[in-house]
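We were asked to recover a plausible sequence for a given structure. The inputs and outputs are reproduced exactly as logged, with field labels preserved.

PROBLEM: sequence recovery
POSITIONS: 443
GIVEN STRUCTURE:
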């Protein structure tokens, strides 16, 4: 039985889907106005592992993520770069999906773009107006928090502070209360606009896209919602307020899971703080597997400090692990004892660091059998390509040297042959003499 820490109840709970073995899981996706950074990688790798684990346990998981392709940040970027907002969004969406694939994230069933759900968004705002939860001021329709008494049940707070997702707070002095948020923004010259007779022409506020998408894809109640801890307030509170007001059904989501921040010099890594390292930049130095190893060596709920040293450590550990796995021979059946231990850790709120330790323990256990098959199974969840054979390309100069050495050996000029072998070793390669000839390997 999987246990998850549910932000909504502040407890570790047994995970029971609403319907049988089916799970509907939604995770907040990126706003596509820039390259994705390592903070995004942390959240999405950790939810990828969670998704893989649910499937491993036999659940039928439907994993949905939104893409925010209309938002103030995208519009600002398009004004700065004098480029159509659609082009900006399309470009960074493509880059994001590419980064996800490179990081071995293939678990998402559907990426849903906000602009493909405008009818659903308009329909939600109209229903909120009809039910008396929304009011109109000069620049748009706003949610009236006074009307929704449960606001704050997820995060334990109702009030905004100045440093809460500041760029995303809709400021207007006419608002009834400071925390009220915009559902539909009236059109402004040179901004993207969608027609609506009832609402007046305009564009969606930020929080409404997620509930419009999930209502269409999942219905008014579903199993699991995830995202980074920064989104818990006010974004996730706003989602709950919108959906539960429309449907009258509670809770909108049974389990809420939040990932801790990736930090750099004690601050959250973020685009707005300008302290970010893009996934693409990091990939120039480290392999996707090392990045995944770095992320999953840490529990998803905990913050993770980024530093060159931390990534170097991850690289060394990963390489050691991969080398040890490379030496395994296919013998024995899956080691059920170790799989059980592994599952115990993963069942405990997806404890990937401890599950990784089980894998290390298995490797070092001299008596254990079936290591290769067992690790193969565990790696279905970690996605670290531990048993994938790398295609090593041996440089031409090394191959030429190896040939020269062969000729010396044929002529029984052993000293010269040994000299060349040493030279090859110094260049980082080793020669293995076998019955069939010489193998050249990376040292
Ligand atoms: P954004 O593009 O800022 O809307 O973020 C998309 C997703 O990435 C959200 O779930 C965020 O919570 C998450 N995220 C952004 N920055 C970080 C970070 N530094 N560490 C962990 N998750 C993050």
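RECOVERED SEQUENCE:
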């Amino acid at each position: 039985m999987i246990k998850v820490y549910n932000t909504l109840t502040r407890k570790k709970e047994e995970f029971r889907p609403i319907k049988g073995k089916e799970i509907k899981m939604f995770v907040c996706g990126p706003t596509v106005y820039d390259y994705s950074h390592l903070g995004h990688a942390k959240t999405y790798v950790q939810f990828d592992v969670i998704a893989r684990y649910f499937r491993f346990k036999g659940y039928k998981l439907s994993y949905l993520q939104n893409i925010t392709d209309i938002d103030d940040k995208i519009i600002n970027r398009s004004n700065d770069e004098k480029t159509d907002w659609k082009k900006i969004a399309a470009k960074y969406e493509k880059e994001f999906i590419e980064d996800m694939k490179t990081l071995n994230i293939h678990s998402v069933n559907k990426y849903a773009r906000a602009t493909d759900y405008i009818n659903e968004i308009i329909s939600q705002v109209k229903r909120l107006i009809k039910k008396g939860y929304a009011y109109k001021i000069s620049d748009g329709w706003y949610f009236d928090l006074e009307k929704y008494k449960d606001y704050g049940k997820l995060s334990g707070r109702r009030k905004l502070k100045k440093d809460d997702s500041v760029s995303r707070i809709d400021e207007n002095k006419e608002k009834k209360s400071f925390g009220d948020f915009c559902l539909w923004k009236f059109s402004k010259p040179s901004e993207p606009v969608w027609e609506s007779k009832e609402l007046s022409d305009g564009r969606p506020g930020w929080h409404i896209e997620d509930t419009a998408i999930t209502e269409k894809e999942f219905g008014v109640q579903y199993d699991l919602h995830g995202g980074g801890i920064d989104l818990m307030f006010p974004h996730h509170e706003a989602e709950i307020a919108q959906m539960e007001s429309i449907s009258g059904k509670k809770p909108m989501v049974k389990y809420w899971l939040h990932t801790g921040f990736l930090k750099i010099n004690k601050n959250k890594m973020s685009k707005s703080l300008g302290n970010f390292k893009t996934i693409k930049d990091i990939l120039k130095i480290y392999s996707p597997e090392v990045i995944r190893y770095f992320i999953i060596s840490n529990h998803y709920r905990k913050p993770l400090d980024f530093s060159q040293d931390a990534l170097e450590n991850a690289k060394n550990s990963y390489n050691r692990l991969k080398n040890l796995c490379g030496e395994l021979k296919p013998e024995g059946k899956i080691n059920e004892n170790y799989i059980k231990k592994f599952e115990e850790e993963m069942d405990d709120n997806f404890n990937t660091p401890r599950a990784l330790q089980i894998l290390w323990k298995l490797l070092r256990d001299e008596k254990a059998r079936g290591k290769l098959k067992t690790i193969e199974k565990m790696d279905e969840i970690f996605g670290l390509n531990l048993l994938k054979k790398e295609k090593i390309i041996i440089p031409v100069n090394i191959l030429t040297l190896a040939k020269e050495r062969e000729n010396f050996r044929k002529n029984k000029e052993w000293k010269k042959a040994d000299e060349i072998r040493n030279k090859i070793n110094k260049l980082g390669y080793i020669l293995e003499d076998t019955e069939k000839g010489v193998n050249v390997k990376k040292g």
